[in-house]
């Protein structure tokens, strides 16, 4: 997180901010991307522009950066706004920015090797998969784990990724590593989620990488449930309600 660039609320998103008083010639295509990148990075210390693309709104470009909030900028980079873009249509209110986040999140999650996850699969047909960023010591993560048999019964495969909220090097982080490195990681997960002690062990593991991935896809707490389409459910949801949302009940 960039201390000098704190992005807060939708109210802030509605405030159009000028970062230069002098005008600039209109740019197009690659020129617009270069103009936006140069102006923002020069004006905001620590900001790194990762991608610039045309938005659904004429005259505005979506700017993805190393900050989780989306930036929308004019094509010459002179003005920008921060936050989520909403669309009002006959179907109601929709969050355009979150739709884009979900698409990007789905692509990121598709790159994760299933062998790096701790998965609990149905005995029969897998009708849906969920990807759960979890913390061994999180009470609601433990509550969700109690629902895993029911989720499996409903045809939902549960894939766990490590997100020990206290971060690398902490007891919770080491506990997750021990679970992942156990000879039977599923049994170790069951034991740890039920409050049992798992023998400390270590090995080459993906936990720190998954922790970083969680930050990249917008995890702010646990459990964080990512669906196959990239949409994220933040927090615990009972098994049957989750299945209903997935169209399985």
Automatic annotation (TrEMBL):
<dbReference type="Pfam" id="PF10411">
    <property type="entry name" value="DsbC_N"/>
</dbReference>
<feature type="domain" description="Disulphide bond isomerase DsbC/G N-terminal">
    <location>
        <begin position="28"/>
        <end position="98"/>
    </location>
</feature>
<dbReference type="InterPro" id="IPR033954">
    <property type="entry name" value="DiS-bond_Isoase_DsbC/G"/>
</dbReference>
<keyword id="KW-0676">Redox-active center</keyword>
<dbReference type="GO" id="GO:0042597">
    <property type="term" value="C:periplasmic space"/>
</dbReference>
<keyword id="KW-0574">Periplasm</keyword>
<comment type="function">
    <text>Required for disulfide bond formation in some periplasmic proteins. Acts by transferring its disulfide bond to other proteins and is reduced in the process.</text>
</comment>
<keyword id="KW-1015">Disulfide bond</keyword>
<comment type="similarity">
    <text>Belongs to the thioredoxin family. DsbC subfamily.</text>
</comment>
<protein>
    <recommendedName>
        <fullName>Thiol:disulfide interchange protein</fullName>
    </recommendedName>
</protein>
<dbReference type="InterPro" id="IPR036249">
    <property type="entry name" value="Thioredoxin-like_sf"/>
</dbReference>
<feature type="domain" description="Thioredoxin-like fold">
    <location>
        <begin position="124"/>
        <end position="244"/>
    </location>
</feature>
<dbReference type="InterPro" id="IPR051470">
    <property type="entry name" value="Thiol:disulfide_interchange"/>
</dbReference>
<dbReference type="InterPro" id="IPR012336">
    <property type="entry name" value="Thioredoxin-like_fold"/>
</dbReference>
<keyword id="KW-0732">Signal</keyword>
<dbReference type="InterPro" id="IPR018950">
    <property type="entry name" value="DiS-bond_isomerase_DsbC/G_N"/>
</dbReference>
<dbReference type="InterPro" id="IPR009094">
    <property type="entry name" value="DiS-bond_isomerase_DsbC/G_N_sf"/>
</dbReference>
<dbReference type="Pfam" id="PF13098">
    <property type="entry name" value="Thioredoxin_2"/>
</dbReference>
<feature type="signal peptide">
    <location>
        <begin position="1"/>
        <end position="27"/>
    </location>
</feature>
